[in-house]
Design brief:
The protein has 198 residues and is an alpha/beta fold. The protein contains nine helices and five strands. Helix 6 links the parallel strand 4 and strand 5.
């Protein structure tokens, strides 16, 4: 029993690595470029998703703040009860749904389009409403979730975060963001000590 459990554990690394590499193949460079340019220009950035996608979207908002791009996670429930007042024309809303059909997010998408905000969709389903209606689409590819039932959003979560990490890496390069800029806003922890060492 334990041997099987450990095999499952170590197989998870292979499964997630495979999907991240497959995502790099399907992710369109032109769409990535448009996403980086939109994020660099936006006065405000927001992200939203449900479940594991929502947790990943919190990570995305933090990544943006770490590159001094003001960002905020808006829960889907709060978004449709006034939270979308945060969004203005020209701002960016990033929405994540592997299937691209999450009802709560499609309502957010519609309101953002009406307000003139730019919508970036992250999805695997390129035929979905999210993919066809978003201004920019970042494709993901999940070969299999890690659990034996293929139900938990594990690999999906890893792939989504890999896309976000790639976006931040590109954004730092594109905007010319400097290490000492990061040192100023990150004085805490081992990284802060290293960057701020005299």
């Amino acid at each position: 029993m334990m041997e099987n459990a450990l095999n499952q554990a170590f197989d998870a690394f292979k499964i997630e690595a495979e999907s991240i590499l497959e995502t790099a193949k399907v992710l369109d460079r032109g769409e990535m470029q448009k996403a980086v340019e939109a994020l660099a220009k936006a006065e405000r950035i927001a992200s939203s998703g449900c479940g594991h996608s929502g947790i990943a979207c919190r990570h995305f908002a933090h990544l943006m703040c770490c590159a001094e791009r003001p960002a905020h996670f808006i829960s889907p429930a709060e978004a449709v009860h006034g939270g979308l007042g945060y969004m203005k024309k020209g701002d960016v809303m990033l929405l994540v749904s592997r299937g691209g059909k999450t009802d709560e997010l499609l309502t957010i998408l519609d309101v953002c389009k009406q307000k003139g905000a730019i919508v970036i969709g992250v999805t695997e389903n390129m035929e979905s409403p999210l993919a066809t209606q978003a201004d920019i689409v970042l494709a993901m590819k999940v070969t299999k979730e890690c659990d034996k039932y293929n139900c938990q959003g594990t690999t999906s979560f890893a792939v989504t975060n890999a896309i976000f990490d790639a976006l931040q890496a590109a954004l730092i390069e594109y905007t010319g963001y400097q290490k000492m800029d990061f040192a100023l806003i990150h004085p805490g922890g081992a990284v802060g000590k290293r960057l701020n060492a005299k």
